[in-house]
Design goal:
The chain has two domains: about 190 residues, I/LWEQ domain (Up-down Bundle); about 60 residues, no CATH class. The protein is about 80% helix and about 0% strand. The protein has seven helices and no strands. Helix 1 packs parallel to helix 4 and helix 5 packs antiparallel against helix 6. The longest helix is centred in the last third of the chain and has 43 residues.
């Protein structure tokens, strides 16, 4: 009893109710996140143009795909959870089963919370990116966090599942779907970041003659600096190769004058 996790300050008989509540809360969070993404997409199409619209549509589209994959995962998790309780409780009630297996129940609740929280945070990050106030890196981190949370949910569900369970197979397939959707978000975000940076760095249309001349001089200075750094690095590489050759020769038994040491 002393070693039991104390992550949940609830009575054991309340655990069953809490599992159902958290699963419902997670499902609601996913639906809310999906609705917010759809709203952001509509605003982007109404107010953005060109590269910005293309980038925002790609990122928000991949986020929508991720929300759909998570929704499938949550449903599969609920089906497997119901199967586990029905097959393992015997004559006991579901609440008694959850109380008896309280550590497993707490892990399931924690994993479900993490998935819902991750989805909410990712949508917040996507909203900031679309507005031009957030960073692409934060969105990528959030999507990877969701992948980790779904893996936690699968692991928690799998502990008491029958290895031949059809519902377990569905959950694992849903988990792979989430991973693929996460990879899609990361890929679209990286592509969008590169596209925006390239546009920002090469768009001179709004610059005056004086600004163009200033930029031109700065660019020339930067080129000279880089050429100087490159020359020094090549010299360093040559010295390193020379030293490497000398040390390799000594290791093989050669003196500096070329005489072999028996």
């Amino acid at each position: 009893q002393e070693l039991r996790p104390r992550g949940l300050d609830v009575k054991q008989e309340e655990l069953g109710d809490l599992v159902d509540k958290e699963m419902a809360t997670t499902a609601a969070a996913i639906e809310t996140a999906a609705a917010r993404i759809e709203e952001m997409l509509s605003k982007a199409r109404a107010g953005d143009t060109g590269v910005k619209l293309e980038v925002n549509e790609r990122i928000l589209g991949s986020c929508t795909g991720l929300m759909q994959a998570i929704h499938v995962l949550v449903l599969a998790s609920k089906d497997l959870q119901r199967e586990i309780v029905e097959s393992g409780r015997g004559a006991a009630s579901p609440k008694e089963f959850y109380a008896k297996n309280s550590r497993w129940t707490e892990g399931l609740i924690s994993a479900s919370k993490a998935v819902g929280w991750g989805a909410t945070v990712m949508v917040d990050a996507a909203d900031l990116v679309v507005q031009g106030k957030g960073t692409f890196e934060e969105l990528m981190v959030c999507s990877r966090e969701i992948a980790a949370s779904t893996a936690q949910l699968v692991a928690a569900s799998k502990v008491k599942a029958d290895k031949d369970s059809a519902n377990l197979c569905k959950l694992q397939q849903a988990s792979r779907g989430v991973n693929q959707a996460t990879a899609s978000v990361v890929a679209s975000t990286k592509a969008g970041k590169s596209q925006v940076e390239e546009k920002d760095s090469m768009d001179f249309s709004s610059m005056t003659l004086t600004q163009i001349k200033r930029q031109e001089m700065d660019s020339q200075v930067r080129v000279l600096e880089l050429e100087n750094q490159l020359q020094k690095e090549r010299q360093k590489l040559g010295e390193l190769r020379k030293k490497h050759y000398e040390l390799a020769g000594v290791a093989e038994g050669w003196e500096e004058d070329g005489e072999w040491i028996p």
